[in-house]
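Weekly puzzle thread! Below is a chain. First person to post its structure in token form gets bragging rights.
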Amino acid sequence: MPLLANYHTHTTFCDGTSTAEEQVQQAIRLGFRHLGFSGHMDPDIHMVIQDYYKEIRRLRDKYSGQIEILCGVELDNIYDPHCADEADYLIGSTHFLDVETEVPMSVDNSEEIMAELCRRFYGGDYYALAKDYYDLEARVYDRLHCTFVGHFDLVTRFNDSMHFLDEDDPRYRKPALEAMEYLVSEGVPFEINCGAVNRNRKKEFYPNTFLLKALRGFGGEILINSDAHHHSLLDGAFDKAVQKAIECGFTHTNILTKQGSGVLHWKQLPLDAI
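Winning reply:
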């Protein structure tokens, strides 16, 4: 049975290229049982959120009985946590460092912006930048009370091409592991984010293999998301992510649903059943 759920879904309300209804229609074609939208609210990309809520409610009513639709928000670590109080769930993501810039400069925007961030604020020391990133990432649940953690190691977005970090180096691994262990202690799940793989931007998922194995060792929980910005990638790389999760020692993934009780809750799905 394929994985029939996704909770990291972008649309034309933010930086996606498919409408919300196109995403729903694709989900139904794929046989999805659950679809969660996750429009961006961050210093660079943020929606007219009441219009977003209105459209997701319309789609929830229109397709009731065919698919469960949840209205989530991908909320950035340094953005106002109260901007999304009406959302069903929150993805806690760190795109920006807590530094003062004239215009927003995210770690996943471009190689040029990443290099400029490091030069201006860290004297060219990418290990210092990564430590700052993970120190901030460690506080994502405390700041946002998010439902799950999005693309944990996004700071490595351009490392395949720029080679600015040795991801095996203790200077990189230590702050990453400390942040991960702290977040696991707070009981917040982590997504295996397929976005960079299904768009051929990176060889590894977020988190990478080493960090996924560490997550398993810490007793952390996972869910699998495509981070789809176009409907054609709604289930992109799910099969590879399932195999990666099994390789890293996980026995189940998690589904977020209101079905049954009407209250948002997690439901385990054995990986050997997918």
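Puzzle host: Confirmed. Bonus trivia for everyone else. The beta strands are 5-6, 34-41, 68-76, 89-93, 148-149, 190-193, 222-225, 252-257, 265-270.
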